[in-house]
Amino acid sequence: MEISITTVNGKNINLEVDDSSNTIDLKIHGPTRQLVLRLGTEQDLDSDPKASMQIYVSTFELGTFNFMVERTETIEDVMAKIRHGEWAPILVDPKAFMLIFQGKELENRRTLADYRIKKDSTLVLLP
């Protein structure tokens, strides 16, 4: 699909993107700047990215636990909350675990919003 971007100085940029794209990184020439566009519904755009929401983290051995997070937090931030949780000492090596959402392994540098993780979503913690 093709999307069109109009810059603040009125310049139009047309991009051909994959229909399955969630995030597009575009580097603008001149002083190094990066613009990240998020494709989504109006509801996604209207939601407050800084608002706290509850998510669940499920483990096979220990059950399910809830955490308060913001959509802008990275997966690494969420893993830090898990490592500092009350049940973390039970885990042999919490750093050796990965988070899964909708069958995908989550990358530490990406945010919850990147994966469209919303309130009351459940992530799975696997060794």
From TrEMBL:
Family annotation (SMART domains): UBQ
* Record InterPro entries: Ubiquitin-like_dom, Ubiquitin-like_domsf, Ubiquitin_ubiquitin-like
Q: Which PROSITE patterns match?
A: UBIQUITIN_2
Q: Which GO terms describe its molecular function?
A: mRNA binding
What Pfam families does the database record attribute to this sequence?
ubiquitin (PF00240)
Q: What UniProt keywords apply to this chain's record, in alphabetical order?
A: Isopeptide bond
Q: Establish whether keyword Manganese is in the entry.
A: no
Domain Ubiquitin-like spans what residues? 53-127
PANTHER family from the UniProt entry: UBIQUITIN
- Spell out the protein name for this chain: Ubiquitin-like domain-containing protein
Q: What is the lineage of its organism?
A: Eukaryota, Viridiplantae, Streptophyta, Embryophyta, Tracheophyta
